[in-house]
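hiii, so i know i said id send this last week but things got crazy w the move. better late than never?? heres the sequnce for the chain we talked about at the cafe, plus the structure i predicted for it. fair warning i was half asleep when i ran it
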Amino acid sequence: MTQFQQDLSGKIALVTGGSRGIGRGIALKLAQAGADVAVNCLEREDSAQEVVEWIRGMGRRAVSIRADVSTESGADTLFEKFDTEFSHLDILVNNAGPFKVKKLLETTADEWDLMLRGNLLSAFFVTKRAVPRIMKHEGGGSIVFIGSTNSERVGSQHVSCAYSIAKTGVVIMAQTLARDLGSQSIRVNVVNPGFIENDTMTRAMRNWMPSEVPLGHVGAPTNLADAVLFLSSDQASYITGAVLNVHGGLWV
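okay and structure toks below
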């Protein structure tokens, strides 16, 4: 029987929001598959550096880059530092973005702006700068956006409406890019997580979330990372414009 394995040896990846949670899991998974990884963070430089040290311990190149990618100047800073370490880019994972649980009519204008800027504009700023760097290297590349199941359906726990709108925009952006960049052999896909274990979950959230999921438990960051690894690999060479739900059957 053929043994399938994703091999990213020689590839260079950039993961935004890679210092913790889903982003950390993705950065480590890509490195385990052979990729060199740039780990972007907003504030937690110590956590990002810890991820970098783990990756270097695997024998890969890695660097942490602190930059606020929700602003154009921050995205410029990210790639100025990226370019000092790497000659091109093969894999971009747009993971950075804040999350909030807030009823619509209780949301302030600043909170609304934070959700859209942090989740949607950040992906736009980073992708716009990443694509020329992917094109520098023959063979194309892969862009994976981390979306949300809330882009498909209104959740029952008052997840920020602005967050859901931003993630819906992420899906539309990704599918537009999939059409625009296909001729350049750049594949663009979305992974929509459901309830994924993280350090911001409250005890109440941990109590009710499993009952909402047909599989009976929340997911782990590695579940998302496995999906991103697949979409970044040659095994997904004919997949672009896809939205892959990793939610344990949440909306079934």
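btw The beta strands are 12-15, 36-41, 62-66, 91-94, 141-146, 186-193, 243-246. thought thatd interest u
miss u guys!!
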